[in-house]
Amino acid sequence: MAGEGIIGSWRRLNLVGRIAIGLVAAVCVALLTRWLGGGAEGWEAVVARTKHVPEGWPAWVLSTGELLGDLFVGALKAVAPVLVFALVMAAIAQHQRGTETNIRPILILYMLGTFAAALVAVSLSFLFPSELVLKGVQKANEVAPGGITAVLKDLLMKLVTNPVQALANANYIGILAWGLVLGLAFRHASDQMRALLNEVAEAVSKVVRFVISFAPAGIFGLLLVTLLSPDGFRQLQGYLHLLGVLLGSMLLVALVVNPLIVWTQTRRNPYPLVITCLLESGVPAFFTRSSAANIPVNMALAKKLGLHEDTYSISIPLGATINMAGAAITITVLTLAAVNPLGLQVDFATAVLLSVVATLGACGASGVAGGSLLLIPMACALFSIDNDIAMQVAGVGFIISVVQDSAETALNSSTDVLFTAAVDQAQKR
Q1: pTM for the predicted model, two decimal places
Q2: CA separation (Å) from 126 to 258, 353, 356, 374?
Q3: The domain that contains 267 carries what CATH number?
Q4: Count of CB atoms situated within 10 Å of the CB of 309
Q5: How many domains is the chain partitioned into structurally?
Q6: Each residue of 157-192: pLDDT tens digit?
């Protein structure tokens, strides 16, 4: 009966709670391993002992952590290419001509806000560069391009890759290109075919959600190995620094960039509207961690603000899909965190290109928990970063996702209402 109670309590927990338990468990097991295997000698002694003793507690714990972490990261690597391809193709195919003209300015603000968020993330990443400890850095350094010309050439070559090869080799630039092209072609297909594409995308999303459900075990393994490594504490400092850059970028966008965009539309003090949207939309979204789940909340808020129903009934569900400022920040910051250990010099033009890729990629990040993290390899492909390294960074993202994903969703969802209200007020002005 006690076992059933524990299992029932676990099932009732959301993903955030489960990941938090995984993080706490990893810290506890690491401390116990240190006490049993190293005592006062420190982490280095534990690791040194596990390298030479095939049996015993420390070695078993370390190998188990590596297995869980490798399995989780490997599963993410397997599903991410198919996810990007299916989501992009289905999203483009579902978009139909004849969208009402009052939606167009809102769409422009969605894209502008997402792009501005990516630029803010690039700027803060330059000012406060994140240094992560990654495996295989030398390998990536050998193939990393050295400037905007090399990046563009490599980008063009990846665009013309065979779609099967793009999926097999995790060439995210080619995957994105073929998803866009096929999506545009399927816009002229029958309703049944477009419905089928939507069902395929939903099926792939379910597979991804199934993989993500094992995040607590995977994160447990990843953090455990980190804590038992010789430079474990330095890595933790890197994680906290990375989280600080992410949250700082999101706060800057929410409190400075978005109000500026709103002011360009309304020509009045934007902060009462900004604060209202953050409190009544951002706070619920922070805890639900789902822009889609927060749609009813945003609908009720839009009605409360007196917005035009024909407008917000379209713009808010659409915003939950394509308005992804928080996701663009996540993709940009974590991609540059993967670039920094390589010693790659990123110029302004390349950073702008990254922002464009992040903006496009973020539009397909909705509807899947951790969707923005799974799109990091697509942005990393701009710099010819090995997929294994890109997924290591994605794994770090999942470790900090307890806070990062909640903040990202809060920014995304609150901005849906904010920009809709800005355009509505501008039209009434």
Answers
A1: 0.66
A2: 21, 15, 17, 23
A3: 1.10.3860.10
A4: 11
A5: 1
A6: 777 788 888 888 767 667 777 887 888 888 888 888
